[in-house]
Amino acid sequence: MGNQQSDLYARLGESLMERMTVFWSNHFVTEYREYRFATWLFRYRKTLRTHALGDLRQLVHDIGKTAAMLRYLNGDKSRKGSPNENYARELLELFTMGVTGPDGSANYTQTDITELSRALTGWRLYPDREYDVDFDVTRFDDGVKAVFTREEAFTYHDVAPLLFDERSPQIAHFIAGKLYREFVSLDPNAEVIAALANRLEAED
């Protein structure tokens, strides 16, 4: 009985992981027709699956430097002096916190997007190489950026910690709302979402 129960739990865990992988693929969206390179799609899906039931902060960090995401939101074209704002905007609006918080106040400004995009510069794609994503320091804006209330020479690796340190309640509420609509009902229950958000934030 014990082995059967263990096998059942294992299968349920695998099913949940696959279900959450689908959820995250609809959240951190890319479109294959924009890059048409199977290796990039495989690595993007592998990143989602690896973190499907894990640390959202780490998933946010890792997904942004997949080749699929870099190409889809033009991160590979973002460089010092000419930062592309597409990924920074989607990161805030669709991937982490949403436009407004639970109280209706704005979660970020256009300046935050502009400055954040500078921290995301420097990544390049090499479809003909085994390691097809690389960081080119000559394309990176190493200057001081002003994001939210902080001014530092932020790099890509600072971005996820910055977002979760400065906007943890807003991120938890946004993600809780999406999980509720995905797995419970399209008709939101504010109390349940708030409770779920508190749980998510406590485990961050």
Question: What descriptors fit this protein?
Answer:
204 residues, mainly alpha, two-stranded antiparallel sheet, 4 strands
Polypeptide structure, described:
By secondary structure, the protein is mainly alpha-helical. It has 8 helices and 4 strands, in the order ααααααββββαα. The chain has helices at about 1-25, 40-50, 55-65, 65-70, 85-95, 110-120, 155-185, 190-200; strands at about 125, 135, 145, 150. The chain has a two-stranded antiparallel sheet. Strands 3-4 form a two-stranded antiparallel sheet. Helix 7 (about 155-185) runs antiparallel to helix 8. The chain starts with a helix and ends with a helix.
Radius of gyration based on Cα positions? 18 Å
Strand content: 5-15%
Largest sheet: 2 strands, antiparallel
Question: Any low-confidence stretches, pLDDT <50, length ≥5?
Answer: none
Helix content: 55-70%
Topology:
Blueprint: H1 2-27, H2 38-50, H3 56-63, H4 67-72, H5 86-96, H6 110-119, E1 123-125, E2 133-135, E3 145-147, E4 150-152, H7 156-183, H8 190-202
Antiparallel strand pairs: 1-2, 3-4
Helix pairs in contact: 3-7, 5-6, 7-8
Concise structural overview:
The chain is mainly alpha-helical and 204 residues long.
